[in-house]
Structures are given as structure tokens and as C-alpha cells.
Amino acid sequence: MPTVFYDCAGGVGAHELIIEDPGHTRLEDHTLPVISQVINAWKIRTLDLMRDIRLSAFFIIRNVGAPAGMPYDHSVSQLVAMAVIPPVLKTETRRRTGVLRAKETFHI
Fold first, then answer.
1. pLDDT in tens, 64-79
2. Phi, psi dihedrals of residue 81, rounded to the nearest 5°
3. What distances in angstroms separate CA 15 from CA 28, 45, 51, 58, 59, one per listed residue?
4. pLDDT above 80 for 88
5. How far is the C-alpha of 34 from the C-alpha of 21, rounded, in Å?
6. Is 40 inside any structural domain?
7. Judging by beta carbons within 10 Å of its beta carbon (0-12, 13-18, 19+), is residue 49 exposed, middle or buried?
8. Which of 10, 20, 69, 77 stands 20 to 30 A from 61 (CA)?
């Protein structure tokens, strides 16, 4: 029986919740300095997780209230780090890089 990637891949990754507001105020209703603090928290936590060479894909997912499936009314973000870059993300990144290069706006 052939070995499939998921048969031998370990459970490497991270999932963190970032509370954007301890009360019930949505992030977009805050002042710019408060919004900046949340974005800085995303940056600090992402940079820390990037030190783990096993992780290669990082996502910030924002959840706000019931429409996002949250059982409570707090403004919450999730930081997800994965060892595998999802194929859809890899394909989209390559496509967008090609478009930017074609427009000569992409500089390495």
C-alpha cells in the first residue's frame, strides 16, 4: 500500500486567538491608534511564529459576532500557521506574481 503524505505528516502548526476588544466594540469602530495596536499584535505574533522553520503559511482570520459563527459578541481574530502551503494559495500567489511582473510593478 503506497504511503500518502497525510499518513506520515505530523501535526505541526499553530492556532492563536487574538482578542481585539475585551468589550463588545467592533475593531472598525475603534480609533486608528487602537486598530494599530491590534495590527501590531498580529505582526508580533506572526513574526514570532515565523521563527519556527517548520511553518510556512500564515493567515489572519477575523471573526465578528454571530454572522461569522462566533457564539459571543466580541471582536476576535485568529492567527493560523501551517506547515503546508495550501495548493489554492500557492496557485493564487504564482498567478498574482505573474500579473505584477507583466505590469512591471513587481520588484524583488
1. 666 666 666 678 899 9
2. -125, 130
3. 23, 11, 15, 10, 10
4. yes
5. 9
6. yes
7. middle
8. 10
What confidence score (pLDDT) does residue 103 get?
73
Give, rounded to a whole angstrom, the gap between the first and last alpha carbons of the chain. Answer: 44
Query: Has residue 97 been placed in a domain?
Result: no
- How much is the average pLDDT of 81-88? 89
* Grid coordinates belonging to 20: 481585539
CATH number at residue 70: 3.30.428.10
Whole-number pLDDT of residue 102 = 73
Domain that holds residue 44: 13-83
Give the number of other CB atoms < 10 A from CB of residue 44.
Answer: 11
Measured CA to CA, the distance from residue 76 to residue 96 in angstroms comes to 29
**What count of residues does the chain have?**
108
pTM of the model: 0.71
* pLDDT tier for residue 41 given thresholds of 50, 70 and 90: very high
Q: What is the tally of structural domains in the chain? A: 1
